[in-house]
Amino acid sequence: MDITKIIDPLNDAQRHAVTAASTAMLVLAGAGSGKTRVLVHRIAWQIQVEGLSPHNILAVTFTNKAAREMRSRLEELLAIPAQTLWIGTFHGLAHRLLRRHAQTAKLPATFQVMDSSDQLRLIKRLLNRLNLDEEKWPPKQVQWHINAQKDEGIRARHTSETGDPYQRQMLAVYRAYEDLCDRSGMVDFAELLLRAHELLRDNPDVLEFYQQRFLQVHVDEFQDTNTIQYAWLRLLTQDKDNLFVVGDDDQSIYGWRGAKIENLYKFQRQHPNHQLIRLEQNYRSTGTILKAANTLIANNDGRMGKELWTDSGDGEPISLYAAFNEQDEAYFVVERIRAWANEGGARSDVAILYRSNAQSRQFEEKLMATNTPYRVYGGLRFFDRAEIKNALAYCRLMSNRNDDASFERVVNTPTRGIGAKTIDDIRMIARDQEISLWAAAVALVNQGNLSARASNALKSFLLLLKQLADETEGLALYEKVKLVVEKSGLLELYKQAKADKGEEKVENLEELVNAARLFDADTDNEDNLGELDLFLAYAALEAGDMQADEFEDCVQLMTLHSAKGLEFKLVFLVGMEEGLFPSQQSVDDAGRLEEERRLCYVGITRAMRKLYLTYAESRRLYGRESYPRPSRFLREIPAEFIQEVRIRGNISRPAATIQPKPKTTMTTGTYKIGQKVSHEKFGEGIVLQMEGQGAQERVQINFKQVGMKWLMLAYAKLNIIS
Ligand code: ATP
Ligand code: MG
């Protein structure tokens, strides 16, 4: 037995945590100090040295990517296979429990998981049905409210009406939403957690089974557990002192979604004999990056307090780039990445991190234009794309005819002559008789009141699904998906639609078949559940991990939230502007501002060797132009760690100042950056940058109609617009 592999790569404190006898343990330590490493090595230790079966271990992480990484690191450490070890996200594990015990959990065996955009659509439909005005009852707010209730473990029936009309109405909506989900066999993300908790709480035999199975329970990123997740862990472990958690209060970034830092205190209170271990050496980042992060986070109050040091030397300074606008920002970042790759750096060691998903588009465009491979995690995930959702909707309907969201989605996609009037009629029947849209459609056909054309169109849809279900019976998963893609007419539809990115959509559909082929139900399927249902749930839960070849060397794009736990040699933290980061909603709220600062701490500490910070002096986002001020977080990093970048030597851009500053007024003769100009062919535009001198002088202009162009000044014949 080779235990050196398990304990050699650890420092003393880490080794202590890994090898300690079974006890409740909290490893509380800053970023990059080896918490995740300790967790993985402890599992390996328990299996290899203490002789525990992988079957008896449960490990919880925060993202699917992290879960996969953990499993593969474990397999490297272990001499025996670890398939029977349960490792996954809270949502993934809850889903697995519910599939195994669907009936006990009072769910139909074919229940479907809906992601948050499906949920939002369902809520919109519900509000409409209840005749509630979306202006007064913004669907997103309703969604937030419902999820927040569920995260706290509160069902509609637990709440009694108060005199407050708003509360009463919201409660009615919640109740109606629960009914609708129950009737159609739909489960949202928050419901997964709540229902799995209720399953264990209300069924002593089920609970006992899992308590006896999971002799050791490990949780990474514990600071971001919410009430229901903690209650779930508590049920499984009770007072047995077999719970091992690692976390960092400074990296709690899901408060807005119900995460409770207080769970760290609760854990300590509820396990009076727990061991607390602190790790203080950071192995990830350079001294400069680490000191910048430490100074920034010191601005928060009420921290648990931790020391973090490194012996890796200061490394390079942090670079700060003040971009003229968001396009210039993307241009700068992509050029730096190209330089990195040209010098032999791996693209997969590079991450572009942003606060909000909408920011990715600019970077994607520039990366595409330069043929630089990249992957976006989160955001418009592979499984969120319209063509993929359409194909999956057919699959879902095959599995569960009562899935109303899927019915609406594809009843007339591709168009088969089912008009808005017919669909309205279907909705009406569904609403009056409280039945699913599918059942309502069948009823409508049977009534025989439809015109022959409408009736035939609707019949053809009903028949199509029946055929799909019949013909796919007994086929392998990927053959099923393939048949659906073809027979539904979707493939043909996108093949025809050349103009509208049809080709890309066809490729995506092919990729879906491929994903189904690669889908490994084995690790996920001890009980031979329907493969298709597992695949559909996987699609709903997965965060965009299928979109490019996992092993292709490509730049990683993601929000700061999804970067948690990861590390990259080169990191670009972009959009460092007030109103964007920190977000507008947080600037007036001290609690939320602190959470934004923790998010910034998470971002900075992802960088191993080199960190770039960028902001734009003007930004067009969500269709609006703004002139934001640089983020306050930039000011909170001591200037000695920061070096301001001037991009092209022959243009002296005014030094980017951190203070709010007057607009740039640098000129070369007649033109200045930000100048509005017009061109006889390209129309109006704005000067972005200039380079070269004399006859070689060129300007880059962003034209309203044709986008960015470089023009030779000597020939361009520009008119200045005052
Ligand atoms: P985060 O808070 O960001 O999740 P973490 O505390 O989980 O960070 P890890 O990801 O486990 O930290 O470790 C950070 C890096 O340091 C990893 O590359 C890991 O392999 C390395 N590392 C951890 N411990 C040691 C050690 N004792 N010797 C060398 N490298 C180490
Ligand atoms: Mg970690």
Layout of strands and helices, then pairs:
Layout: H1 4-7, H2 12-19, E1 25-29, H3 35-48, E2 57-61, H4 64-77, E3 86-89, H5 90-100, E4 112-113, H6 116-129, H7 139-151, H8 165-184, E5 186-187, H9 189-202, H10 204-213, E6 216-219, H11 227-237, E7 243-247, H12 262-270, E8 275-279, H13 287-297, E9 318-325, H14 326-342, E10 350-354, H15 360-369, E11 374-376, H16 386-399, H17 404-410, H18 420-433, H19 437-447, H20 452-472, H21 477-487, H22 490-496, H23 502-518, H24 531-541, E12 555-559, E13 568-573, H25 590-604, E14 607-621, E15 624-626, H26 632-636, E16 642-644, E17 667-668, E18 671-672, E19 676-679, E20 683-691, E21 698-703, E22 707-712, H27 713-716, E23 719-721
Parallel strand pairs: 1-7, 1-8, 2-3, 2-6, 4-5, 6-7, 9-14, 9-16, 10-12, 10-13, 11-12, 13-14
Antiparallel strand pairs: 14-15, 17-18, 19-20, 19-23, 20-21, 21-22
Helix pairs in contact: 2-3, 3-4, 5-9, 6-7, 6-8, 7-9, 9-11, 13-25, 14-15, 16-17, 16-20, 16-21, 18-19, 19-20, 20-21, 21-23, 22-23
Adenosine-5'-triphosphate binds next to helix 3.
